[in-house]
Amino acid sequence: MAGLVRPKPHYDLVILGGGHAGLQAGLKAGLLHQSTIILDRGPKFSRSYYAPAMDNIPGFPDGISGHRLLDLQLAQVRKVAAWTDYVAPVAVGEVRREGEEFSVTFERLRTRQTVRGRALLLALGVVDRMPEVGGKIDPIFPWANFGIVDFCMICDGHTLPGKTVAVLGTEPLAVNTALDLLHWGPASVSLLTHGRPLLPGVPEEERAELLAGLEAHSIPVRTEEIVGFEGIREKRFGLRFADGSTTVFDKGFSALGWYSTHDDVARGLGAKVTPDGYVATDEDGRVLAEGDGQVIPGLYAAGDQRDGWKQIPEAWPGPSAR
Questions:
Q1: Phi, psi values for residue 142, rounded to 5°
Q2: Cβ pair 168, 229 in contact under 8 A
Q3: Are residues 196 and 271 in the same domain?
Q4: What is the pLDDT of residue 4?
Q5: Beta strand 286-288 pairing with 295-301
Q6: C-beta of residue 118 within 8 angstroms of C-beta of residue 13
Q7: By three-state DSSP, how is residue 190 classified?
Q8: Among 19, 43, 56, 212, which residue's CB has the most CB atoms within a 10 Å radius?
Q9: Strands 10-16 and 111-122, sheet pairing
Q10: Do 301 and 196 sit in the same domain of this protein?
Q11: Are 92 and 156 within one domain?
């Protein structure tokens, strides 16, 4: 375990979030000899931490797990410790603009501390909404941790040829996910609404188009409530329904959207946020203002929190070093 880092009062760059985007930005800043601090809740809060294998990471032809990649990135950050401080676990509190700088207050080891920086990078990521069974999200964890239930179509769609697939969700995202997964040639795709109505509140014209898509591609919709999962030993996605019936799929896909996009910090700093909750930036990752759409000096966003592709290699370029 590395020694306890004592944060300095002032940095060139303050990074909120120590996932793939935040760690890469901290590494790059250190290599550029910019004094930097990464404030992180901890690796287990990274969206990819429990991913057993990722095949879309450059340099790893046999794939790599999310937690292993985070470990390697953190080891790289440790190499530039003369310039970049990594502090975890912390709970970030107030974030505000003070003149031409940013002030961040956080709690660590039951002590409140404040650091300031000339620039601030938002890399807090997003949180997937998990399927709930009996009011709890825990039941799905074993299937998610084994990669039997996935959350990223672009990351894992290539594993689906010849597989039977269940998509969980009720919104247009779920219908579009079910239709898009057909690109990879699964044996079948089914849509499960878990006891909830399909496409609630969707305008009639859009609703009719989406339902027509499901019918045209013979995608069945099951509306029964899910009361349990099974098949973990066989590495299959088995489901038990409230009516007593059961069914088994090779893979599951959660298409429930985000539980949180951590947009409250960005909004508090006057940033423009898209209807989906992402921070709007220019091509260099500079955050745009809500009112006039101009760049907010010194404020950046990277990774899943930024509007754009939710892919680790896309997060690595990070913000411009201007």
A1: -60, -40
A2: no
A3: no
A4: 83
A5: antiparallel
A6: yes
A7: strand
A8: 19
A9: parallel
A10: no
A11: no
241-258 per-position pLDDT tens digit: 999 999 999 999 999 998
Are 102 and 39 members of one domain?
yes
How far is it, in rounded angstroms, from Cα 27 to Cα 134?
43
189 and 213 housed in the same domain: yes
pLDDT in tens, 258-291: 899 999 999 999 999 999 899 999 999 999 999 9
Which residues are within 8 A (CB) of 31 and not within 5 positions of it... i.e. 6 or more apart? 80, 83
Judgement on whether residues 265 and 122 belong to the same structural domain of the protein: yes
User: Based on the structure, what is the number of domains in the chain?
Assistant: 2
290 Cβ neighbours under 8 A, 6+ residues apart? 267, 270, 271, 272, 273
Characterise 202 by phi-psi region: left (phi > 0), alpha (psi -120 to 50), beta (else). Answer: beta
- State which residues form the domain around 21: 10-126+261-315
228, two tokens: 């349990």
Contacts 24+ apart (CB under 8 A), 151-155: 151/47, 151/253, 151/254, 152/310, 153/177, 153/180, 153/181, 153/253, 154/56, 154/309, 154/310, 154/311, 155/51, 155/54, 155/55, 155/56, 155/311
246 and 267 inside one domain: no
- Alpha-carbon span 51 to 147, nearest angstrom: 7
Among the candidates 227, 254, 281, a domain finishes at: 254
Does residue 3 have a pLDDT over 70?
Answer: no
Tokens of 234: 């066989």
CA distances from 158 to 100, 107, 313 (A): 46, 42, 17
Which CATH number covers residue 144? Answer: 3.50.50.60
